[in-house]
């Protein structure tokens, strides 16, 4: 079950994410790794839906989903801004070293773009809470993809 974060925990995570974003912008040595895998999502109302992950980076992922899922991501409508940043729980099976491991994380919706030519949305998600196990899976995945030593932590 998901526990509510204390604000201290939250701000630590936020700081880590921002440090990571700054680091990424600075170096961009952690490129986005293209993906083509289904991810399972659940919003805070408990509604479940799916998306297709297009790429992943240490700080988040980009996915495609149908318009229905897009509405579930933004249940209150409106635009996404600092005051309206819905969060979801996500699960994705990442293959590291030939083994599938399930990454479970809490993510914040950064943007939802509707694709005009088809009834689809492209969504940017930023990881806001990653437990130590998920962190290890992410690290191993990027080490694998980028040919780094697994001990090289990306976060």
Features of the shown structure:
alpha+beta; 28% helix; 3 helices; single chain; 155 residues; six-stranded antiparallel barrel
Sequence of strands across the biggest β-sheet: 1-2-3-6-5-4
Radius of gyration: 15 Å
What oligomeric state do the depicted chains represent?
single chain
Record field, number of beta strands: 6
Main beta sheet:
6 strands, antiparallel, barrel
Ends apart, CA distance between termini: 25 Å
Number of helices: 3
Helix/strand/pairing category:
alpha+beta
Helix content: 25-40%
Give, in order, the helices and strands.
HEEEHEEEH
Q: Give the strand content.
A: 35-45%
User: Which word captures the global form?
Assistant: globular
Indicate the low-confidence ranges by residue numbers.
Answer: none
Average per-residue pLDDT, rounded, comes to 80
Write the layout of secondary structure elements.
Layout lengths: L6 H21 L5 E11 L4 E10 L2 E7 H7 L13 E10 L2 E17 L4 E11 L1 H15 L9
Describe the protein:
The structure is a single chain. This protein has 155 residues and is α+β, with helices and mostly antiparallel strands. The two termini are 25 Å apart.
Short structural summary:
This protein is 28% helix and 43% strand. The protein is built from three helices and six strands.
């Amino acid at each position: 079950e998901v526990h509510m974060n204390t604000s201290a925990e939250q701000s630590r995570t936020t700081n880590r994410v921002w440090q990571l974003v700054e680091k990424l912008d600075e170096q961009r040595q952690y490129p986005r790794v293209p993906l083509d895998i289904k991810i399972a999502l659940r919003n805070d109302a408990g509604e479940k839906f799916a998306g297709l992950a297009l790429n992943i980076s240490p700080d988040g992922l980009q996915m495609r989903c149908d318009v229905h899922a897009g509405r579930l991501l933004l249940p209150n409508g409106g635009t996404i801004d600092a005051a309206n940043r819905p969060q979801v729980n996500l699960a994705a099976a990442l293959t590291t070293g030939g083994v599938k491991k399930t990454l479970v994380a809490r993510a914040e919706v950064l943007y939802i773009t509707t694709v005009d030519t088809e009834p689809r949305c492209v969504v940017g998600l930023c990881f806001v809470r990653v437990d130590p196990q998920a962190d290890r899976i992410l690290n191993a995945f990027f080490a694998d993809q980028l040919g780094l030593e697994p001990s090289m932590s990306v976060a």
